[in-house]
Specification:
By secondary structure, this protein is mainly beta. It is 0% helix and 41% strand.
C-alpha cells in the first residue's frame, strides 16, 4: 500500500481547507475523496511519521518541479528541503520506489486537482522550459503554436510558478497566434488570466491583444489587455463592439510592481469583472458583440505594428477560457500552476 493516495501515476494533493470529515492515514491528513491535504504555513509545525505538518495536520511542501533545492536530504526515502518541507513536483513519473512515484530529479510526483473547465481552455501557457528557449508550449486541449518575434524567450531567473516565465524586453518581443475561433468570444462568457511582473513601470504595455496587425479604425480591434504605466499605472481591458461601442474596464488600484500580480478579466452575461490578486477591482456592463475583424491575430506582449506598446517584463501562467466566466466575486489567488487536465 502506498503512503500517499495515487491517481494517474501521481500523488494526489488538495489545497482545500481541512474539514471535519478529514481522516488520518499513515500520519497523512486525507479528505473525503482521499486526496492529501497540504499546507504552506509555518505555524504549529510538527512531525508525524517523518512528515512536517502544519497546525491543521496538512503536509508542508515545496515545489521542486524545476529541480531539488540545495541541501535536499532524504528521510525514509522521501526528499525534504533544509526546512523539512517535502519536495514535490508536477513533472512526469520517472520511477516508482516503495509505492511512491518520483520524477527524474528525485522529487515526489504530485498532481494538483484538475480544472473542471479545462475542456473550455483556449490557450494555456506555463512558460516553462530551459533558460533562453524560444519554445512556448500551449497545454490547452487544442495546442497552438505561435510565431515568436524579437527575442521573446523563457527565463528561469524570474518566475511565479514552475521555475520559469516568459521574458519580453520591450524591443519587439511578442508571440503571435493565427486567427482562431477559440479566441472569438462574440457575446459569450470568457476569462483571461495571467501573472505579470513589470521590468519598467513608466510605459504603456500590452499583455495581449486580438486585432489586425495594422489598425486604422476601432473595427480592426477585438480587445486589448494592458498596463497603462505611462499615465495612470492602472490595468485596463478594452473591448470594441460590432455596434461601434467601446468598453473600458480599468482597475481601481495601481498595479503592484515589485512582484508578480495575478490579473484576471472575467465576462459573465453582460458584466465584465476585473481582478488583481483575487480582489475585484471594477465591474462594467455591456451586452454587445465583440468585433471579429478579418485577418485578426492574437498577440502576447504587443498591440499592433503601428503602435505596439511592447511588454517589458515577465508573464507567467497565461490562461484563456472561452465559454466560462470563472469569477464574479473576490477569490483566492493561485498557489500553484494551472492544471493541465480536468
Amino acid at each position: 500500500m502506498a503512503l500517499f493516495p495515487i491517481s494517474s501515476d501521481k500523488v494526489q494533493f488538495d489545497t482545500g481547507t481541512p474539514a471535519a470529515s478529514d481522516q488520518f492515514s499513515n500520519g497523512v491528513r486525507l479528505k473525503s475523496d482521499n486526496t492529501a491535504v497540504y499546507g504552506v504555513t509555518s505555524g504549529g509545525q510538527q512531525y508525524q511519521n517523518g512528515l512536517l505538518l502544519d497546525a491543521n495536520g496538512a503536509i508542508i511542501y515545496v515545489d521542486a518541479s524545476a529541480g531539488l533545492p540545495a541541501n535536499t536530504q532524504y528521510t525514509n526515502g522521501l526528499p525534504f528541503n533544509s526546512s523539512g518541507a517535502l519536495c514535490v513536483s508536477t513533472n512526469a513519473v520517472d520511477e516508482w520506489i516503495n509505492g511512491i512515484p518520483f520524477d527524474s530529479n528525485g522529487a515526489v510526483c504530485a498532481v494538483i486537482p484538475g480544472d473542471p473547465n479545462y475542456n473550455s481552455v483556449s490557450l494555456l501557457l506555463h512558460f516553462d522550459g530551459a533558460d533562453g528557449s524560444t519554445t512556448f508550449t500551449d497545454n490547452s486541449p487544442t495546442p497552438k503554436t505561435p510565431t515568436v518575434n524579437g527575442n521573446a524567450q523563457i527565463d528561469t531567473a524570474v518566475f511565479k510558478f514552475g521555475g520559469a516565465s516568459g521574458l519580453f524586453d520591450g524591443t519587439g518581443d511578442y508571440l503571435q497566434y493565427a486567427q482562431n475561433a477559440a479566441f472569438d468570444f462574440g457575446s459569450g462568457d470568457y476569462t483571461i488570466e495571467l501573472q505579470y511582473k513589470p521590468n519598467v513601470t513608466n510605459t504603456t504595455q500590452v499583455f495581449l491583444a486580438y486585432t489586425k496587425t495594422t489598425v486604422a479604425v476601432n473595427a480592426d480591434v477585438a480587445f486589448v489587455f494592458s498596463y497603462n504605466g505611462a499615465t495612470t499605472q492602472k490595468v485596463q481591458f478594452v473591448v470594441y463592439t460590432q455596434a461601434g461601442g467601446t468598453v473600458v474596464v480599468a482597475s481601481t488600484n495601481n498595479l503592484p510592481t515589485s512582484d508578480f500580480t495575478e490579473i484576471a478579466l472575467s465576462r459573465v452575461g453582460t458584466a465584465y469583472y476585473l481582478f488583481m490578486n483575487g480582489v475585484l477591482e471594477n465591474t462594467v456592463f455591456e451586452s454587445g458583440l465583440i468585433n471579429a475583424p478579418t485577418g485578426r491575430v492574437l498577440r502576447v506582449g504587443s498591440y499592433h505594428d503601428g503602435t505596439p506598446f511592447p511588454l517589458n517584463g515577465w508573464i507567467d501562467e497565461l490562461r484563456i477560457t472561452k465559454g466560462v466566466g470563472r469569477y464574479t466575486t473576490g477569490y483566492t489567488p493561485q498557489t500553484s500552476a494551472f492544471p493541465n487536465s480536468l
